[in-house]
């Protein structure tokens, strides 16, 4: 199989170079561009599987480029930006970007995200398209028959308790469960001072399913209330 | 030709016509005057003594004649007896054709006697009316009849020189043979043919030849009698009586003044006429000067002047039996002058005529008082004026009502009613003004409420012409100032945040490269150990820089109020438990004891969970970082009177040589040396976030005990 091709777009050439090196180390083919128009040229001429796109660039900025690309292409786009506001993230994602990574980023995390997006793009509509008893949210999928959780199509190895917690939360996507409720439903015991116990399990699950466990995307703590898996 | 002269033409024509009439009348009067008439116009009237007037002489003649008749009357006649005899017929004048001669004579006698007695009564009354002004003495030695108002015989009976009381410098004395007359100490020859006495009743007596029949038929024979009339020099009024002498003198005086006034008016008119004929410009100049003088006089004084002139004129004219047209002439003359001055005044002072007066000044004074500052003074002045006015109104109303009751005159009652109405109207005006002020005060209170609540856009509007207009203007100006200040501060805050945002962006881009290349470096395989160590330090510091930039950015946002907070109901107990669970690893690592004292039941508050998590995470990690090894960290949550109180206490591992305020300041770090990790913004962020999340944040330092106290309103 051909190596997946990643287009890296940023006006800062050093950043482009560093990312390229990391990507090449991971085994991807890399094409670089230094502004929006160059990126559009590259996309029209090459077969590209993922775009890493900066927002603030000369000639054509990242958001406009995203809109142009989304007119006829379904290539995953990860936006790289120094803008860290929630509003910026929401704007980028609603323009059609698939992920939003703020600068300065951890190179390892970026690579994990790249992997995740490419895997989803390449295998889209393949494994996950058949069963109706599969619950999906973003890159996570839970098969209620086999009680198996996959992240980007890769099965995640969970313990029995962890599986029970994931099952509860995945079956009620977006609903908030308090630690007591989770304990009662999973352990089938009367809860007493269970916050720590539940939290320990939550953290372990996070390390298995989240790209950056310190900034979880899916399994989130709703502070002062409980826990939930986001519906994406 | 100036407009003023054109306008004054009709007036001048009238003036000339009037002067013409005046001259004609004056000439006629002068020509027809008689030497012995009192009612004449002539230049010598000024020096005329009333004793020289014909009226005076007539008066004396009449009195003398009476006295003569009185003392020569046959007082022995039995009037009452005869009256009784004729009975009723006397009263009914029952003349009978068949009455015989004797009876008729008796009747005639009675009638003559009755007429005489009536005449005596009337004359005596008139003597009484003269009082002290006239002393009379009449005595008939033949019949022993005498009549006098003097206590003494005045030296008449002893044939001595007369001894009149002091102050009587005029007398006429008939000593039985001749008249002796003295005026002001000088003898007057009454027998001289043209001294005026000849045309009075003295005529009969001056002739004095009673033996010649036919001349003195009806004149009493007073030979041998003594008759004296003496007139006081300084005449006095007699109470309740009408003294002819007194009024004679008074009328003459009045006439003199009247004459003077007329003469003066005439001279002035004539002078003005000639003056204006000779020199029109000078005439105008004169009128302008008069106008200038009049312009300085208050209107009230002018009106007062007119009233005084009118009253004086009426007084002068009153009591005269002159020809009607003369009276009219005088009045017209006065009117002419008044109109003339009024005309000059109006023409010269057209603009001030209405404003240059006391009433206007009073009104202006009142308006000035209205504008007096401070406000309370104006109000007090108004209420005082109001009370005084009302008191006056009430006083005069009561007075008028009493008057109306006493005089039973409806007019007074109507006046009282009008006064009451005016008083009520004034009171209404005052209360309306007062009520308006109160309403305005309410509006201002509302406005200040609005401002307090942050609405500085709405302008205050109070009733026009209100006393509080100044307050309205000031408040609106303050509001404008506040609005500008708020706008400016918002703008500057926004600019500050923009600046920090831009700076943090600019910092983040190179930092991205640094982190990326440090990461690449760390992946190099064949590096010496010390280089690897260096790279580790670089990685650590660049990471710290990343958090620092983010913290700085967040802090500036929350401090400028630009951060959005997602307020929700949450359980504070759970939040603390979750945060602690999240930090479980680090707590284990630190080896510090954790003493939790949380209530069993949930404590619900309204806050932003994500922000509050950061607050507690910061506080706990601070406590872990700066606690003395082997000590314990205490976390207490208590609920008191609707407030949830969280206390985090730890024992510091360094000397806390800073104040409680300093520590929450941005970039302040407890140890001051800045050697440890962390951005140094932890407490500042904790404080700002807590306050923005609806809580209170307090740091207390007691020796080595560090205490962070957070409180929230519970639900």
What does this entry look like structurally?
- The complex is a heterodimer of chains A (232) and B (715).
- Chain A has helices spanning 13-26, 36-45, 62-70, 86-94, 107-122, 160-171, 179-187, 195-209, and strands spanning 5-9, 29-33, 50-54, 77-81, 99-102, 134-137, 140-143, 148-151, 154-155, 219-222, 226-229.
- In chain A, helix 2 (36-45) packs parallel to helix 3, helix 6 (160-171) packs across helix 7 (179-187) and helix 6 packs across helix 8.
- Chain A is elongated and about 60 Å long.
- In chain A, strand 10 and strand 11 (226-229) form a beta hairpin.
- By secondary structure, chain A is α/β, with parallel strands linked by helices.
- The mean pLDDT of chain A is 86.
- Chain A has eight helices and eleven strands.
- By secondary structure, chain B is α+β, with helices and mostly antiparallel strands.
- Chain B has five domains: 9-31 and 263-353, no CATH class; 46-242, no CATH class; 373-449; 491-563, Helix Hairpins (Orthogonal Bundle), CATH 1.10.287; 565-713, Histidine kinase-like ATPase, C-terminal domain (Heat Shock Protein 90), CATH 3.30.565.
- Chain B is built from 20 helices and 13 strands.
- In chain B, the strands form three sheets. Chain B has a six-stranded antiparallel β-sheet with strand order 2-1-6-3-4-5, with helices on one face.
- Chain B is rod-shaped and about 190 Å long.
- The relative contact order of chain B is 0.05.
- Mean pLDDT of chain B is 79; it is low at 1-7, 31-41 and 667-675.
- The chains are: A alpha/beta (232), B alpha+beta (715).
- The interface between A and B is medium-sized, with 33 and 36 residues.
